[in-house]
Design brief:
The complex is a heterotrimer of chains A (265), B (275) and C (282).
Chain A lengths: L14 H4 L2 H17 L3 H17 L3 H29 L3 H27 L3 H10 L4 H29 L10 H6 L2 H24 L18 H22 L4 H4 L1 H6 L3
Helix pairs in contact in A: 2-5, 2-10, 3-5, 4-5, 6-7, 7-9
Chain B lengths: L2 E9 L5 E10 L4 E5 L6 H8 L7 E6 L2 E2 L5 H5 L2 E4 L12 H11 L4 H14 L15 H13 L5 E5 L7 H16 L3 E5 L3 H7 L2 E6 L2 E7 H4 L3 H6 L6 H7 L13 H16 L1
Parallel strand pairs in B: 3-8, 3-9, 6-7, 7-8
Antiparallel strand pairs in B: 1-2, 1-4, 4-5, 9-10
Helix pairs in contact in B: 3-4, 3-5, 4-5
Chain C lengths: L1 E12 L7 E9 L3 E5 L6 H8 L2 H4 L3 E9 L9 H4 L3 E4 L12 H11 L4 H14 L15 H13 L5 E5 L7 H18 L2 E5 L12 E6 L2 E6 L1 H7 L11 H12 L10 H13 L2
Parallel strand pairs in C: 3-7, 3-8, 5-6, 6-7
Antiparallel strand pairs in C: 1-2, 1-4, 8-9
Helix pairs in contact in C: 4-5, 4-6, 5-6
Classes of the chains: A mainly alpha (265), B alpha/beta (275), C alpha/beta (282).
Organism (chain C): Caldiarchaeum subterraneum
Subcellular location (chain C): Cell membrane
Membrane topology (chain C): Peripheral membrane protein
């Protein structure tokens, strides 16, 4: 659950929060691409620093830490695997560590790139973004519905669990096979509930003219302000620098011999 | 005592303080109605009886067992809880197995399971459906099955959460009958309900809850006719009580819970006036 | 002016052997408030769904007879057109709200219809004001109480400006106080907009006095169609799964005991008025 806690419902008030979601989406994408094309430790650290700046200015560092905490086991695995595979090729501890650090920090940058977007954008804004990016409405609606009904389903799960426990079901006892079997009295009613709910929802959608018009309009609209454009330009400049550095082979790791010893190029 | 609540506090993970120092005693064989608006703590209270929820402060003792020391499975054997949408917990392919599920969980031998299931189904007039899928039963039959499921292991305490929601008058009549019968069998019956008219017909002990606290506890006749209490708990007064209250200046007594009593009063006042 | 006309309507759900509706004939005048009651499974919900086209378009089955709703035939007209004439509110508040804010939810049907943004904004404001929920505009549906959710559901339907409002047990999931408040606001809105209302409801005591007409649907047939007062006076409503308001049962008995007792009352207020008038004449 901690990976998804980022999806809040009320908009924040910081500069980052108030940026147009499309700009944030573009920024996240560019950060991700830059991290993919580079394995240079300096660039990676630079990206991490930029991300941290954004997160701090948006005041969402606590939520970010919670999200990252969920992914720490994964990062640790990457660190270990990289270290041992590098060590087996070249038995120098410092190089092994250098490689491991690079790859695991890179993973962190990947994971955080879209945190910038999700932690500072409400689901409503995400839906609007998808709409204005001309994503077919069915997909946007599916996305919104998933968010809308997740808490409802969570509640439903608790209700079914309580009801079956009151009939003597013990979910946390017994051998593994028994525990799997014990899921049936919980999953079946839940599934039936989901199906029943979808019928009722479909009826209501029908009554609310879903699919009536090919040209669907919307209540709200995203408008880019001068601040948004300015921010986007800055990000674009940084991005082009990042890409050119790669294309021209000017990465710090290659140009600074000390780094080349310990870190991948 | 069937069940005792000693200064019970409960706070949900969402920080909602649902029960604030509730102290109550339920005697064996009592019929009790828990009333109050949505969010007053009725369901939370019922869930403490079979251990689904354990008190954050204070303790709950059911049939001599402290609920904090027992599992839900153990407590459920003495305290059955029929949820609001109990018909939505079915999962077996036939009615027999559906009723047998709980009994098998409690460890009864297959022989005893068979006897009890047959008894429960017969009692609720569902024996002809024994091999049918529970999903194909009608609304009323499903509700009876939900009751049969709980009664099969004969718990001493039965808790019903909103048993009359969405039902027509014929179904409610049946439910009233079943509740009275459970009570006659010597079981302690606790009803969490909004249905004031239904409660007025049963004349149980009434406990009013508001924002997690007990605001009233006593005779149905006294509590449902008290305007201040009714307002505090945000419930509706029985229609007759409300009507007669408006006529108190003409000598009417608003402590009227059934039509017979109402007829008597009106005749008395009108005939008296005319003499 | 007749706004709903149903002639010889019969319907059997696909896969079912028993007809849900048998030769139903009814007509409803513009502006009437009709209370639809009867035992569970008797056909009330089915009847409502035949009026807005959900039957036979969404629910398949054997369909015969003719239905006219404001001149449109629900079996032949696309449901989105029917929804602009007859709006429908369902029992479960949770399963009618789709968006992540109240505002967005009320706008949902209007967006689907492709209305211009200005039009949408205006209609959403009006609908929220009607149901007194403007202060809830940014809240997400999950945080709202059942009563608030139903108000949003109603506002969403009214935003399409239908002439008829059909409601299938809208207070089922609400406590009596909230139910009474909801029905009161529906009555208010009905009068302000001059809507025709069809209300399926078990809690008869909350609506009997306000309704112009009562329709009792049992076993697929309309067994009574007329004034609520007549129904309760001449029929044992309990046999049809309808709980008579206690005051009504009381006054029905009084009528037999007391010659001067004039009428069967449908509410506590009517009962009070009746008693006072009798007392003053003594």
């Amino acid at each position: 659950m901690s990976l998804f806690e980022g999806l809040r419902f009320r908009p924040g008030t910081t500069f980052i929060h108030r940026l147009d979601p499309r700009v944030k989406l573009a920024t996240s994408t560019m950060v991700l691409i830059t991290a993919v094309i580079h394995i240079d430790i300096v660039i990676i650290l630079f990206l991490l620093m930029l991300e941290s700046l954004v997160i701090l200015s948006a005041k969402v560092q606590n939520l970010w830490i919670k999200t990252i905490r969920g992914a720490l086991p994964l990062v640790a695995i990457v660190f270990a695997i990289t270290f041992f595979s590098q060590y087996s090729r070249e038995p120098v501890i410092s190089t092994g560590l250098g490689y491991a650090l690079t790859y695991s920090l890179r993973l962190l940058v990947f994971l955080s790139s879209f945190s910038l977007f999700f932690l500072t954008t409400t689901p409503d804004e995400i839906a609007l973004t998808l709409q204005q990016l001309r994503v077919p409405y069915e997909y946007t609606f599916a996305f919104v519905s998933a968010i809308r009904f997740t808490p409802v389903m969570a509640e439903e799960l608790q209700i079914v669990l309580d009801a079956q426990r009151a009939r003597g079901l013990e979910v946390d006892k017994g051998p593994f096979t028994k525990r799997i079997r014990n899921l049936i009295p919980v999953l079946v009613p839940l599934l039936v509930n989901v199906i029943r709910r979808s019928y009722e929802l479909a009826e209501a959608m029908e009554v609310k003219c879903f699919g009536a018009s090919r040209k669907r309009t919307s209540l709200k609209q995203l408008n880019m302000s001068r601040k948004d454009i300015f921010f986007l330009v800055v990000v674009l400049i940084l991005f082009s620098v990042g890409v050119s550095v790669k294309l021209l082979g000017l990465e710090p790791v290659k140009t600074l011999p000390l780094l080349g010893q310990f870190f991948p190029a | 005592m069937s069940a005792i609540f000693e200064s019970v506090h409960y706070i949900y993970p969402s920080k909602v303080h649902a029960l604030r120092g509730v102290s109550l005693e339920f005697r064996p064989g009592e019929l009790v109605a828990l009333m109050g608006e949505n969010g007053s703590g009725k369901t939370t209270l019922l869930k403490h009886i079979n251990g689904l929820l354990k008190p954050v402060k204070g303790r709950v003792i059911v049939e001599g067992i402290d609920t904090r020391t027992a599992s839900v499975a153990q407590l459920s054997q003495v305290a059955g809880l029929v949820f609001q949408n109990a018909e939505e917990m079915f999962f077996e392919s036939n009615v027999f197995d559906e009723v047998a599920f709980a009994l098998r969980n409690f460890g009864y031998s297959e022989e005893v399971v068979r006897k009890r299931v047959e008894w429960a189904l017969k009692f609720f007039e569902l024996d002809t459906y024994s091999s049918q899928s529970p999903f194909l039963l009608s609304g009323g039959e499903k509700k009876r099955l939900a009751m049969a499921i709980i009664l099969a292991w004969s718990p001493r305490i039965i808790c019903l959460d909103e048993p009359t929601i969405g039902q027509d008058s014929l179904q409610k009549e049946k439910m009233k009958h079943m509740i009275k019968m459970l009570n006659t069998q010597g079981r302690t019956v606790l009803l969490a309900t909004h249905d004031v008219e239904f409660v007025a017909e049963l004349r149980p002990r009434v406990i009013l809850l508001s924002k997690g606290e007990v605001v009233a506890d006593g005779k149905c006749e006294e509590i449902l006719t008290d305007e201040t209490l009714v307002k505090k708990a945000s419930i509706l007064m029985p229609q007759l009580v409300y009507a007669f209250k408006r006529l108190e200046d003409l000598g009417f007594d608003s402590r009227v819970l059934d039509v017979d009593e109402g007829v008597r009063q009106v005749l008395k006042v009108l005939r008296h006036e005319s003499v | 002016m007749t706004i709903i006309q149903v002639r010889d309507l019969s319907f059997t759900y696909a896969g079912s052997s028993k007809p849900a509706l048998k030769n139903v004939n009814i007509s409803v005048e513009r502006g009437e408030f009709v209370l639809v009651v009867g035992p569970s499974g008797g056909g009330k919900s089915t009847l409502l769904r035949c009026l807005n086209g959900l039957i036979p378009q969404f629910y398949e089955g054997e369909y015969s007879g003719k239905v006219f709703v404001d001149g449109l035939e629900p079996d032949k007209t696309p449901t989105y057109m029917m929804s602009q004439v007859i709006g429908m509110v369902f029992q479960n508040p949770q399963n009618q709200l789709f968006a992540l804010s109240v505002e967005a939810d009320i706008a949902f049907p209007l967006e689907n219809l492709g209305l211009a943004r200005d039009e949408i904004i205006q209609r959403v404001e009006e609908a929220m004001e009607l149901l007194n929920i403007s202060h809830l505009r940014d809240r997400s549906p999950f945080e709202l109480s059942g009563g608030q959710q139903q108000r949003v559901a109603i506002a969403s339907v009214l935003a399409m400006k239908p002439k008829i409002l059909a409601m299938d047990e809208p207070t089922s999931f609400l406590d009596p106080l909230t139910a009474a408040q909801l029905l009161s606001i529906i009555d208010d809105v009905r009068k302000r907009l001059q809507l025709t209302v069809l209300l399926v409801e078990h809690r008869v005591e909350l609506a009997a006095a306000k309704a112009d007409r009562i329709m009792v649907v049992s076993d697929g047939c309309v067994v009574f169609d007329g004034s609520p007062r007549d129904f309760f006076e001449f029929y044992d409503s309990h046999l049809y799964g309808v709980s008579a308001p206690k005051v009504t049962s009381l006054t029905k008995r009084l009528k037999t005991h007391l010659e001067k007792w004039n009428r069967v009352c449908l509410s506590a207020e009517e009962f009070e008025a009746e008693v006072r008038s009798l007392v003053s004449h003594l």
